[in-house]
Automatic annotation (TrEMBL):
<feature type="transmembrane region" description="Helical">
    <location>
        <begin position="192"/>
        <end position="213"/>
    </location>
</feature>
<dbReference type="InterPro" id="IPR000160">
    <property type="entry name" value="GGDEF_dom"/>
</dbReference>
<feature type="transmembrane region" description="Helical">
    <location>
        <begin position="63"/>
        <end position="85"/>
    </location>
</feature>
<dbReference type="InterPro" id="IPR029787">
    <property type="entry name" value="Nucleotide_cyclase"/>
</dbReference>
<dbReference type="InterPro" id="IPR050469">
    <property type="entry name" value="Diguanylate_Cyclase"/>
</dbReference>
<dbReference type="Pfam" id="PF00990">
    <property type="entry name" value="GGDEF"/>
</dbReference>
<feature type="transmembrane region" description="Helical">
    <location>
        <begin position="119"/>
        <end position="142"/>
    </location>
</feature>
<keyword id="KW-0812">Transmembrane</keyword>
<protein>
    <recommendedName>
        <fullName>diguanylate cyclase</fullName>
        <ecNumber>2.7.7.65</ecNumber>
    </recommendedName>
</protein>
<keyword id="KW-1133">Transmembrane helix</keyword>
<feature type="transmembrane region" description="Helical">
    <location>
        <begin position="6"/>
        <end position="26"/>
    </location>
</feature>
<dbReference type="InterPro" id="IPR043128">
    <property type="entry name" value="Rev_trsase/Diguanyl_cyclase"/>
</dbReference>
<feature type="transmembrane region" description="Helical">
    <location>
        <begin position="154"/>
        <end position="172"/>
    </location>
</feature>
<keyword id="KW-0472">Membrane</keyword>
<feature type="domain" description="GGDEF">
    <location>
        <begin position="255"/>
        <end position="388"/>
    </location>
</feature>
<feature type="transmembrane region" description="Helical">
    <location>
        <begin position="97"/>
        <end position="113"/>
    </location>
</feature>
Amino acid sequence: MHLNVETLSLINGGQALVLALMLWFGTHGGSNHALNGLRLRAGALLLEACGDFMLAFDFKFSQLTLLLVGNTFNLTAQALTIVALRMVLGRQRRWREAVLLGIAGWLGVTYLSTVDPNYLLRVLWGSIILVCNASLNIAALWGGCRKRETRAQCVLIWAYMLAIALLAWRNISLWTLPTPLQGIGSPSPINVIYVFLLGMQPLLASVGFLLLYNEILQRELYNLARIDPLTGVTNRLGLLEASETLLARARSKRESIGVLLIDADHFKSINDRFGHDHGDQVLLELVANIRRMLRTGDLVGRVGGEEFLVLSPSVQEADLLALAERIRAAIEGSSFPVAGETYALTVSIGAAIADASEPDMMAARRRADTALYEAKRAGRNCVMISAS
Ligand SMILES: Nc1nc2c(ncn2[C@@H]2O[C@H](COP(=O)(O)OP(=O)(O)OP(=O)(O)O)[C@@H](O)[C@H]2O)c(=O)[nH]1
């Protein structure tokens, strides 16, 4: 089968246009950085389509117009794609690098076409710009690749690396030919792979964007279901899951887990006196105080209202009591700013140890609850531990 450049460009342009419309109309109805990134990618596809259509109808344009305008479309599309990817990932946009790369690409190609025409060097220069492009995208994706929940990022990094390897292969194979210019259009394996992937590029990159977007949505949903929106700490569901994970780890190490139930004393009076919004601010301050007292590996979550749970792995009773006492004293010693006044807040704490042999954490939670009840009955602002 023989396809000329015009036909290939028409197919590519049509593909990019359809994808641009799908992405644009399929992402309306909301506004956040990831959705805006997808829309920017739609804009880039539209420019790619314009560049391809110019090539498809090249007989309508002069060589110079084709070169200058066509490259402006393509290089702007590449720059927009870099920024769009960063937006989808929630990173800083960094327009400057993307724009500078586009300008360098445009100037280089223009110079090698008009001032000092050299087709081979132009191919090399275009490849260098594409490699820089791919590298900027890899840099944006890099941070997440180590985590298991960012598999789409890893896939995209591999895809960009493969693109760099192919560009290197194509250029090395061209430059090592006795007559490199003739090799550019020859049906060698690398040229066939290159043209095939170049043709699929709008589709492949768009699928990559959607995979990333899907992954980001999954992560947001996961967090929304497990994070308390007011205080930003783990909620009940998150605590339940974390409890099981910690217990499984404790079993394997034959260690125990400390459980603390922390409840603010007379919190209702804050709401009654200052209003609910100020009560919320006090809760935030309370969580910050608790967090400051925890070791790495300890977990704090909100059980509900003004009650918090701390899970502290690998502790004995004495360590747990010391931790609870530190938290209690720190809160008693802090002044909580409320509506221009300072409020002296105290907490009552019920403590319990979950033994590694326990089937789940529920029994320890209940014991900590009983101890908390005793602390309240004993006059509040104190720590009680339950017998295991
Ligand atoms: N501001 C605010 N208040 C909350 C929130 N959740 C629960 N509360 C309030 O916390 C108060 C808890 O009241 P109580 O259960 O009577 O407990 P308390 O006043 O702290 O008294 P003791 O626990 O017995 O010391 C209620 O007034 C709830 O409205 C919240 O998210 N924000």
